[in-house]
Design a protein that fits this description.
The protein is α+β, with helices and mostly antiparallel strands. The chain contains 3 helices and 4 strands; from the N terminus they run E-H-E-H-E-E-H. The chain has a 4-stranded mixed beta sheet with strand order 2-1-3-4, with helices on both faces. The longest helix is centred in the first third of the chain and has 12 residues, at 14-25. The radius of gyration is 12 Å and the shape is globular.
Length: 87
């Protein structure tokens, strides 16, 4: 599992809330950056990824999309993100 996790999210984003709940339940510490509350975070996200889609993560310095496009949140997807065995 990554040592440093930063989550770019938004309060109205269901996938963001589900991903944070998954991390909380699995003891994964993270820093949250809400792109609506702090527009500079949105600007940073767009500059680095070309997108404003959330959730987006930085895992040990690597930018990673925190959702599977066109799919609802799934724990299997989240487990893969964090290098956990799917169960």
């Amino acid at each position: 599992m990554p040592k440093e996790v930063i989550v770019y999210s938004g309060k109205l984003c269901g996938d963001c809330q589900n991903l944070k709940a998954f991390m909380d339940a699995n003891g994964i510490a993270y820093e949250e950056r809400d792109i609506r509350e702090t527009p500079a975070y949105g600007e940073e996200l767009e500059a680095k990824t070309g997108k404003l889609g959330v959730p987006y993560l930085i895992l040990d310095g690597e930018w990673v999309r925190g959702y599977d496009p066109g799919q609802p949140f799934s724990e299997d997807f989240a487990r893969k993100l964090f290098g956990m065995d799917a169960s």
